[in-house]
Amino acid sequence: MKILNKQKVMLIAVVLGLFFTGTSYAWPTNERRGLPERGKGQQMLERLNLSPEQETQIKQMQRDRRQVSEGLRRDLREKRKELKQELDKTDSDPGKIKALTQDLKEINSRIVDEQVSGALQMKKMLSPEQYQAFSEAIKDMQDKGGFERRRRPR
Predict the structure, then answer these.
(1) 3-class DSSP state for residue 15?
(2) CA triplet 58, 63, 67: central angle to 5 degrees?
(3) Nearest Cα to Cα of residue 115 among 76, 68, 82, 150
(4) What is the value of pTM for the model shown?
(5) 69-128 pLDDT per residue, tens
(6) In angstroms, rounded to a whole number, what is the distance separating the alpha carbons of residues 73 and 65?
(7) CA Rg, the chain, in Å?
(8) How far apart are CA 51 and CA 26, in angstroms?
(9) What pLDDT is attached to residue 34?
(10) What is the secondary structure of 74-126 as a DSSP string?
(11) Of 149 and 95, which is predicted with more confidence?
């Protein structure tokens, strides 16, 4: 039972992390009104009937978390690039490879910590009913593929 709860918390944490750390893309315009279409995350938050204070807190948390996550993703990309370069060498240094993989593990660990922290912050900001609705909305989005990572062409 405890393992199932831990898995559920981790799943929610990962989903929240994806929700709050998603990369930004240009919003397509709504042709009927000439307005930007709301993203799935914004639509989900609207369904929670947030108070103005909650909305302000969540938007601030999103901004703060976005800055942190962008730094972590940048660090992750740089370390992966360094690792690839070292592995591509004909005389790769096993010590350097080990150090780079350790750095990658630490960055990934910090990413998970940030995701869990975001889930706990969100839980504090929402009422139990709102958090339950939020969790259900995330699960629905997952089931529909709403949080699939888009890969940029290389």
Answers:
(1) helix
(2) 145
(3) 68
(4) 0.62
(5) 999 999 999 999 999 999 999 999 999 999 999 999 999 999 999 989 988 998 999 999
(6) 12
(7) 19
(8) 28
(9) 42
(10) HHHHHHHHHHHHHHHSTT--HHHHHHHHHHHHHHHHHHHHHHHHHHHHHHHHS
(11) 95
